[in-house]
Specification:
Elements (H helix, E strand, L loop, with lengths): L4 H25 L73 E4 L10 E4 L4 E3 L1 H14 L12 E3 L2 E3 L22 H13 L4 H7 L4
Antiparallel strand pairs: 1-2, 2-3, 4-5
Length: 212
């Protein structure tokens, strides 16, 4: 016959087993669930850096070396002769007029100069076309019957024009071609410059005037 205490021992053992089983089950259930430990790294949006150009700075003023240098005034040598027109013979129609000289006035017909004679500021004489025109204008005004020699005090033939005493009439006192007379020096000069102004060369103009 077993003592009573043996039942208590069995019961305690049974409780111990149950309690141990319970703890074991609790331990199993207390394990953490599988956690996804993958770390997602977010990439920040790419920002394009904008480089700002600095404001254009004003250009520095040019240095003294870069400044345009004033051209010194040219010195004119007034002792040099002015280029003068030439006659049909190639001779300059000037008495050595200075390059600095200016026109003063046309010679008056009463001065008995050749047609076109011009008084210059340096005291010399020079031919100009304007004064040549002026001469013939004066001449036409002083001759009441242009186109003829009659009434002028001289007579003309093929050999030339003479005064009643037989002395030759100077060219500047004759009417010239417009009166049917031989050409005066003014007529010749006028034709010479008309030819040059037409664009012909000096050689061509000499041939037109008979090689004179």
């Amino acid at each position: 016959m077993h003592p009573a205490i043996s039942w208590d021992s069995k019961i305690r053992r049974a409780y111990a087993v149950v309690f141990a089983t319970f703890l074991l089950l609790c331990a199993c259930n207390s394990q953490p669930e599988n956690v996804d430990t993958t770390t997602t790294i977010s990439t920040p949006p790419t920002t394009t850096a904008t480089t700002l150009s600095p404001a254009a700075s004003p250009e520095p003023p040019p240095s003294a070396e870069d400044q345009p240098q004033a051209t010194p005034a040219e010195t004119v040598d007034c002792s040099q002769p002015m280029p003068a027109p030439t006659n049909q013979f190639g001779a300059p129609m000037s008495s050595g007029t200075s390059i600095c000289a200016t026109v003063v006035a046309c010679a008056d017909i009463s001065e008995n100069y050749e047609p076109g004679t011009t008084h210059m500021s340096d005291g010399t004489l020079m031919y100009t076309e304007d004064c040549n025109d002026y001469y013939f204008t004066q001449k036409a005004e002083q001759q009441p019957d242009p186109g003829t020699t009659s009434g002028r005090g001289y007579t003309c033939d093929k050999s030339g024009c003479v005064w009643p005493d037989g002395s030759p009439v100077p060219n500047y006192q004759r009417c010239g071609e417009m009166c049917g007379e031989p050409p005066t020096s003014g007529d010749i000069q006028g034709k010479w410059f008309e030819c040059l102004n037409s664009g012909a060369t000096e050689e061509e103009c000499r041939l037109q005037q008979g090689g004179n």
